[in-house]
Every structure is written in C-alpha cells, then in structure tokens.
Design brief:
The chain is an alpha/beta fold. The chain is built from seven helices and eight strands, in the order αβαβαβββββααβαα.
Amino acid sequence: LHNGKRYEHRELTQRGHSDLVLGMMDGLFEQSASTLADVDVLAFGRGPGSFTGVRVGVSVAQGIAFARDIPVVAISSLAAIAKKAADEIGAEYIAVAMDARMGEIYCAHYHYDGDVIHLLNHERVCDPAEFMPFNQRDCVGVGTAWRVYKTQLQANFGDLVVQVEPDYYPEACNVIKLAEIEVLAGNLVNAAEALPVYLRDNVAKKKAEQRG
C-alpha cells in the first residue's frame, strides 16, 4: 500500500519461497515507484500454513523491521482467507479449513459484520472429523481442506454449509486490508515480537515417525 494505492504480486509454489519473496519485493518497489526507505509499517502473514512459507515470511518481515526500525502487523492466514470470502462472495459466517497435511487441518470460524472479520472460536489444528459447525449457523466453507477432505467436512456440516470455495488461499491484498484495520486500532508490535503461528509444535517429530 503506497500513497493510498495497493500493489500486489502473488504466486503459488511449494518451494523457493525465500528467492521468490525478495524478487517480488523488488518488483513491487519498482511498480509503485518507491523504495524500502518509504516503508513505515510492515504487515505479514503469521500463519498457520506451510512451515517453510510461514518461516520465510516471518524472517523477511523481522529482517526488514529490524533494519528499518519500523513496527509490524501480524495477520492470521486463516483470517485473510475469511476476508477474501467476505469481499468476493459476501459471506457472513465463514468456516475456514486449510489442508495441514499429515491427515490434519488448520481451521477456525469467522463472522464478518460488514466491516470487521471476527474470530468466533480459536484457530487450531485437528483431525477433519473434529471440525464442526459453529452454533448451527449457515456458513460458507473456504480453504483447501474443503477439497482434500470434502466428504468428511460436508458430512460434518451437512446443509449448514451453503457454499464451498476450496481454492481460496491467503493473499497479500487481504492481509493488507486486515492490516489497515489493525494499524488504525494501534495493534502494532516491534520486530522482536513478529512471531510465527504454526499451531503444530511437533512437525519434525511426526515427519520422523512417518519416515521411520
């Protein structure tokens, strides 16, 4: 966001995150006729999500924030997906579920009141069978887990899920929209507090068990 105009570049990839993000930043600075010196606040997706992707994003945010001595805003990846659903399809109650691999999902329920995205319960990682409707509310199901675990999630929600959008991902434009609200509310932290949210603390252990 520069002089009131949003600039965005996005790409889905399984690897090479660190090389991509730096190149994308250079491209955005060129596109917006700005430089790193013009950055006053930095927003980043704190996760949950791909371990490598989240780690790279947080590391880059911390590095820039430390170098420039500027505050940062940490935005939930799940909330960014919910924001996309609210803006693009007018969703009010949103059940976000992302494939977390290892037979699990990252999930949470959100409510959009026309202005703000509200987290209704808490973000968690769980078995798809454990993600159930919130207070029997009709909702829109979004996120990759709605494709990967389609049968299980639709069995959980039944007729309460009125629309499913499985190809929704956290995007920079929605991170920025949520960050603008946080900045106005004064919810800023320093570089040292720019921390990732993985939800799963035993990733390495589970991978080792699968290999064993």
